[in-house]
Each structure stands twice: as C-alpha cells, then as structure tokens.
Amino acid sequence: LYIMKIALFDIGGTTIKHWVYDSERPFDFKECIRQPTPAHLGGDAVMACIENTLLFESDLDAIALCTAGQVNPCEGSVIFSTKNIPGYTGMQIKHRLKSRFQIPVFVENDVNAAALGEAYNGAGRQFSHFLCVTFGTGIGGAIFINRQIFYGSSYSSGEFGHLITHAGGIECTCGHRGCYEAYASTSALISSVQKETGLFLDGKEIFSLLPRNPKIERIVNQWLIEVITGLASLIHIFNPQALILGGGIMEEDYVIKNIQEDILMWLMPSYQSTSIRKADLGNTAGLMGMLHIASEQLKHPFILEYVHEK
Fold it and tell me: What are phi and psi of 282, to 5 degrees?
C-alpha cells in the first residue's frame, strides 16, 4: 500500500487542533497538537497560523481541514462566519493553501466533519439518521440522513446555534437577537457565571466547583434548561434516531445525565425513543471526519489503529 501523509486541521473559535496522519505508524491522537485560534485577529491571521504550521511538515500528500463557519466543500471556501472570526467570510481556503503548497486540499464545516467521524468510527455507527450538536464558543450542528451529510440548498444547513429561542433577546455574534447559542453555548454558561459571581472560570473549573457552590449549581441548571429546550425542538423537527452531543462541556457526566433524564418531559411520547449520546471521539471527531473525507477522495483506505483522547 502506498505510504500516505495527510495534514489534518480542525479550526474552532478557541482552539486549532492539528495532526498528521502517516500510514506507516499508528493513529494516536495523544500526539494531536493544540494551539489557540487567533480568532480576534481575523481570518487572515487564522490562515497564516495554518500556513506556518504546514511549513514544518514535509512530504505531505494532502491537507484536510475543517473549520467553524458555513463552508462550501466543493469550492473549499467560507460562505459565512460570525464575528467570532472577523473577516473570515469569503475566505478561499482551498485556493489559498493549494496555490502555496501544490497538493490536494479538502475543506469542510467542523461539525459536518465531526458527524462523519462519529458516523464511521464513533457514537453514530449504528444509526442511519442522527443530528450532531456541538457546544463550545458557539453551537454547531450537522444533519446526517441515510448515512450522509444533508447540506441544504446552499451548503448551509445545520446552523442549530441560530435557532431563535428568545425573540428579541440577547444579541448574538451573527448580528441577530435571541439565538440558541447566545443562551446555551459553553460561552453563554461562562458569561452567566462571570456576571452573577464575578468569577472568571472556564467550563472545567465551573464543574469542579459545582458540588460545593449552590449559586453555580443554580446557574448551571438554568443553562441546562436552555440546552434541553433547544434539543427538544430539534427532535420534534427532525425525528432523528439519535442526538450525538460534542464539545468539551459534554464530557461532563453531570451535563449528559441531566439532559438524558430531563429532556423526556419536553418531548411528546412518540419522540421519546431518540437516543441521547455523548460523542465517542471527544474533540478529535473533526480530525477523524477529515481523515475519512481525504481517504475517500484520494481512494486511500486508511487503517484505523488509534488512541483517541477523551
């Protein structure tokens, strides 16, 4: 079998994950490199970060990259991005990287890639129809129907974070008000804790304090109501076999357990069979999905021998 090296990237609003698949060695995501996304500096700075990383790699056969924002996977461009990454809308990622490095480039939305990773190597293996919802800086979504991604009429389906749950509510980074992600994202939880307690905590720190801090517990439980009501709406719209929930916050047992137990009271009886699953691949799902896309396009069957990080 031809030796293959593929540079994999997952660009999130907070973190860029990078790993090089090499068909000669085991697939170990413990070697995955993480670096802060220079999102506040804009789209050009994000792309420069990717390009600088690629300069340290040699003998690559392809680049496979997933990113936050609405993506046209055929053109490899960003259709629209919120203010989380200023100046990213319209970014011609595929053209830019292919012109510089002269190798095939594959580009996809980050949650679509995560859904593919989970579909073939994770929590979605047994399902033909599921939704993937990821919670982080914003809320991303992917619609998986008949074992493939549903893209919509202009490659922009699955923007679950911009479902309006509070008409006229908090301003969202998309420019509208009352969006689901303004209330139910990890960023929204962090902001609520900061506003009500004065504490600057990340998601892990919030949950480490949960057992002994009633005020934080109340804030988390109110946030969970926001999460659950949005998920209940998605179940009623799509009637999926499963919801697969990703993002670092979904690694917290308290979160998944409460969603699984409490969502039933929000659902009509005929919808209560929907399975609520935590993403098996954790934060590596997007990289796994991009490896699947690249291997399909390059007609290179990769051998799955890896250790993913929870």
Answer: 55, -140
